Structures are given as structure tokens and as C-alpha cells.
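=== RUN LOG ===
request id: a7f3
mode: sequence -> structure
chains: 1
length: 226
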Amino acid sequence: MVARVLNMNITRRFYSLLAVFLLIFSLWTSAARAETVSSLDATQSAAIAIANDYLNSFTHLQGDFIQVAPDGQLSEGSFFFRRPLRAHFNYNEPKRLIVIADGFWIGIVNNRMKTTDRYPIGSTPYWALLKDKVDLSTDMRILAIERDAEHILVSIEDQTGQAAGTLTLIFKKSNQATSNLGDNTFQLFQWLVTDAQGLTTSVEVKNLVTGHQARNDLFTLRQYDR
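=== RESULT ===
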């Protein structure tokens, strides 16, 4: 399963094929929801520890992303994370969207329509990744864990029921000769968000940089007057 996800090149030539895969993955996630992992074996515990160590290894993270929507629509842009609870996603043209987490809210700013929609950050699965201290096994309900020599896949959902949907994190073994992420041998490669309706959005990240502090105004959510 992991290899099938990660071997797909998210390009315009292949995104229609990927959309079909996302539908299949959505069905797999729905089935997995009913079978949460009640106890972790040694391999699974080690995989969770690697994921936690990586996510706690940085306060600032930035890079580029490629997003595939449930309908196969492709979007690209750049992103910035700042722990705790701050994020900024800037979508390239023609979308003109900005998604900002300001510590309390996640807002979707549509510069074309001049609208801002706000949601409590706790109602999204991202809050567990942006906490000051990340512990996936404590904060989230583990749905599935898979690992091979090159990849780790962790599928989670909010155990309180406040955040709808599921989040699957995919980590890929990094090349230590070129990685700037310290001693971590795995780094975040992709995540998939499946909403309450079973629709899955895929986000692949690349060109990751840690330690560079982004401008404060990137995490300020401004409201358009309606």
C-alpha cells in the first residue's frame, strides 16, 4: 500500500490516475475507521516514535506543495509551519487562495471572491501536528500503521470526535547527504486528508527547510468585509 502511494508521480499527466487511486484510498480509510489499533506492537511503536521525533524536531518548517483534490484538480504553492498552531499555505494562480492557522482559527481566504471562512483549529486534524509537543499515540486515535525500509504510513483520527475526518501521514527515508533536517532519517513526504464525506485530498511536500523563521504577518488572519 505504502509503495503504491509513494511511487505515484503527481504531475498533470498522471493526476487523473491519481484521482482514481484517491477514491480507492478513501474506501480503504473508511473501512479502517472501524478497526482502530487498540495496542501497538514493537514495530508499530517504533514507527510512531520516529514520526513523533520528526514532528518535534522543528519549530519552523517551510517548503512547496502539490495538492490533488478529490476531483483530480491539481494545485501548487508554498507553505510555512510555525509551532505552536500556526501555518500558512499560499496557492499559486489561478486559485488565489490562502489558508492561515493563526493559533486559534484556520481561515480560508479567497482573494478572487474576497471572502474569508473561519474554522476552529481544533475542528481540523492539523491541530495535532502543530501542537507545542506532538504525541500521535496520545493525542489521536491510531487507525493504521505501515512501514517498510523506505516509508512509514500513519493513519489517525481525532479521538475526541471534535475534528471530523482522518489524516494519513506518509514519511519517506531521507538522503542524509542532502537532507537539512538533522539526524532524522525519515521526513514528511505526503499527507492525505479524508473528510467526513469520505473525500480524500492528497498533499505532497518538497524542498523542505527547517529553522528559517517566517514573517509574523504570514500567520495573521484578516477578515474581508462582507
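=== NOTES ===
Residues 2-219 form a domain with the outer membrane lipoprotein receptor (LolB), chain A fold (CATH 2.50.20.10).
Residues 6-17, 19-24, 26-35 have pLDDT under 50 and may be disordered.
=== END ===
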